[in-house]
Amino acid sequence: MPVAKPLIITMGDPTGVGPEIIVKALLAGSFDGLSHPPVVAGDPRVLQQAAAIFNRQAQIRAASGLADQEICIGERTLAVKTLSHFDPLPVPGRAPEASHGRAMAEYIEWACARCRDGSAVGMVTAPISKAAIRAAGYDFPGHTELLAKRCGVERVVMMLAGARLRVALVTTHLPLRSVPQALSQQEIFSTLRITDSDLTRYFGLKAPRLAVTALNPHAGEGCLFGDEEQRLIEPAIREAQAAGIDARGPFSADTLFHFAVQGRYDAVVCMYHDQALIPLKLLHFDDGVNVTLGLPIVRTSVDHGTAHDIAGTGTASADSLVAAVQMAARMADEGS
Question: Which pathway is it part of (predicted)?
Answer without folding.
Answer: Cofactor biosynthesis; pyridoxine 5'-phosphate biosynthesis; pyridoxine 5'-phosphate from D-erythrose 4-phosphate: step 4/5
